[in-house]
Amino acid sequence: MVQTVNARSLHVFLKSGKDFSSWIKNRIQQYEFMENKDYIVFTHSGENPSGGRPMKEYAISIEMAKEISMVERNEKGKEARQYFIQCEKRAKALPTQPIQILNDPAELRRLLLTYTDKVRALEKRLNEILS
Prior knowledge:
Layout: E1 4-6, H1 7-14, H2 20-30, E2 39-43, E3 56-61, H3 62-71, H4 75-93, H5 98-102, H6 105-130
């Protein structure tokens, strides 16, 4: 299973200023992304609300989303770049051997607290949805 990002959502987040269709086609061509490797295209079922042909949707790989975000030359692109830099720093700071975590009580406690916080946040959201 490959994790993907909705390209249209990424386009909205990045606030590129270009229409989606031209923007995604340009990025695919410019950075030589490959269909069925970096992205897949599917036709949105139903009619296009603005008329015309049915909309094409693009499910893009996390790697493609990262690359596109990092080349966007605006404030949101900068925000995305900083996010990915922080993710890489955190990943590099993790022990290379899982056994190292078990031997470091402080690191183990930090990880447990992080997961506990995430579980609590998910439980809160679920309770809000169900209420």
